[in-house]
Amino acid sequence: RKLLEAQDVGWTFWPYKKMQSRAGFVRFSAPVNWEKVVTYAKQPRGTGSDEIKAALVSRPTQEEIEACFADLLQRIQLAQCEPNRRYIEALGLTVPAQK
Known about the structure:
With 99 residues, the protein is mainly alpha-helical. The chain has five helices and three strands; from the N terminus they run H-E-E-H-H-H-E-H. A three-stranded mixed beta sheet has the order 1-2-3, with no helix packed on it.
Protein backbone atom coordinates (compact mmCIF):
# COMPACT_ATOMS: atom_id res chain seq x y z
CA ARG A 1 0.00 0.00 0.00
CA LYS A 2 2.73 2.46 0.92
CA LEU A 3 4.71 1.71 -2.25
CA LEU A 4 1.63 2.20 -4.41
CA GLU A 5 0.81 5.48 -2.73
CA ALA A 6 4.44 6.66 -3.01
CA GLN A 7 4.22 6.05 -6.78
CA ASP A 8 0.86 7.82 -7.00
CA VAL A 9 -0.90 4.57 -7.88
CA GLY A 10 -4.41 4.08 -6.56
CA TRP A 11 -5.35 0.90 -4.73
CA THR A 12 -8.47 -0.63 -3.29
CA PHE A 13 -9.69 -3.68 -1.40
CA TRP A 14 -12.72 -5.78 -2.08
CA PRO A 15 -14.90 -6.58 -0.34
CA TYR A 16 -14.82 -4.44 2.77
CA LYS A 17 -16.73 -7.00 4.84
CA LYS A 18 -16.43 -10.77 4.74
CA MET A 19 -18.25 -13.42 6.68
CA GLN A 20 -15.98 -15.31 9.09
CA SER A 21 -12.81 -14.22 7.27
CA ARG A 22 -9.65 -12.42 8.28
CA ALA A 23 -9.00 -11.31 4.67
CA GLY A 24 -10.84 -8.02 4.77
CA PHE A 25 -11.20 -4.92 6.91
CA VAL A 26 -14.04 -6.30 9.00
CA ARG A 27 -15.77 -9.63 9.45
CA PHE A 28 -19.07 -10.84 10.79
CA SER A 29 -20.31 -14.21 11.95
CA ALA A 30 -22.66 -16.40 9.96
CA PRO A 31 -26.36 -15.82 10.54
CA VAL A 32 -28.70 -18.38 11.99
CA ASN A 33 -29.58 -21.22 9.56
CA TRP A 34 -26.84 -20.11 7.14
CA GLU A 35 -25.46 -23.60 6.55
CA LYS A 36 -28.93 -24.98 5.80
CA VAL A 37 -29.60 -22.27 3.22
CA VAL A 38 -26.16 -22.57 1.57
CA THR A 39 -26.25 -26.38 1.48
CA TYR A 40 -29.65 -26.32 -0.18
CA ALA A 41 -28.61 -23.61 -2.66
CA LYS A 42 -25.46 -25.50 -3.73
CA GLN A 43 -27.09 -28.80 -4.59
CA PRO A 44 -27.65 -29.81 -8.21
CA ARG A 45 -30.87 -28.82 -9.92
CA GLY A 46 -32.95 -30.46 -12.61
CA THR A 47 -34.69 -33.76 -13.03
CA GLY A 48 -31.52 -35.90 -12.77
CA SER A 49 -31.27 -39.53 -11.78
CA ASP A 50 -32.94 -41.22 -8.83
CA GLU A 51 -29.54 -41.29 -7.09
CA ILE A 52 -29.23 -37.51 -7.34
CA LYS A 53 -32.82 -37.01 -6.22
CA ALA A 54 -32.24 -39.27 -3.19
CA ALA A 55 -29.15 -37.28 -2.18
CA LEU A 56 -30.87 -33.90 -2.33
CA VAL A 57 -31.23 -31.94 0.88
CA SER A 58 -34.72 -30.75 1.67
CA ARG A 59 -35.44 -27.05 1.37
CA PRO A 60 -35.22 -25.07 4.62
CA THR A 61 -38.59 -23.85 5.83
CA GLN A 62 -39.68 -20.38 4.79
CA GLU A 63 -39.36 -19.32 8.44
CA GLU A 64 -35.73 -20.56 8.55
CA ILE A 65 -34.91 -18.69 5.34
CA GLU A 66 -36.52 -15.47 6.53
CA ALA A 67 -34.76 -15.73 9.91
CA CYS A 68 -31.46 -16.32 8.14
CA PHE A 69 -31.67 -13.24 5.96
CA ALA A 70 -33.11 -11.02 8.71
CA ASP A 71 -30.18 -12.06 10.91
CA LEU A 72 -27.75 -11.45 8.04
CA LEU A 73 -29.04 -7.89 7.65
CA GLN A 74 -28.35 -7.32 11.35
CA ARG A 75 -24.89 -8.89 11.35
CA ILE A 76 -23.58 -6.96 8.33
CA GLN A 77 -24.20 -3.60 9.97
CA LEU A 78 -20.80 -2.04 10.59
CA ALA A 79 -21.52 -1.61 14.31
CA GLN A 80 -21.97 -5.41 14.55
CA CYS A 81 -18.77 -6.27 12.65
CA GLU A 82 -15.38 -7.03 14.14
CA PRO A 83 -12.28 -5.31 12.72
CA ASN A 84 -9.51 -7.54 11.41
CA ARG A 85 -6.73 -5.76 13.28
CA ARG A 86 -3.80 -7.57 11.69
CA TYR A 87 -5.11 -7.00 8.18
CA ILE A 88 -5.60 -3.29 8.84
CA GLU A 89 -2.24 -2.90 10.57
CA ALA A 90 -0.47 -4.80 7.76
CA LEU A 91 -1.63 -2.03 5.43
CA GLY A 92 0.08 0.48 7.72
CA LEU A 93 -3.23 1.80 8.98
CA THR A 94 -4.44 2.17 12.54
CA VAL A 95 -7.48 0.49 14.01
CA PRO A 96 -9.85 2.92 15.71
CA ALA A 97 -10.53 2.26 19.38
CA GLN A 98 -13.65 0.20 20.04
CA LYS A 99 -16.52 2.10 21.69
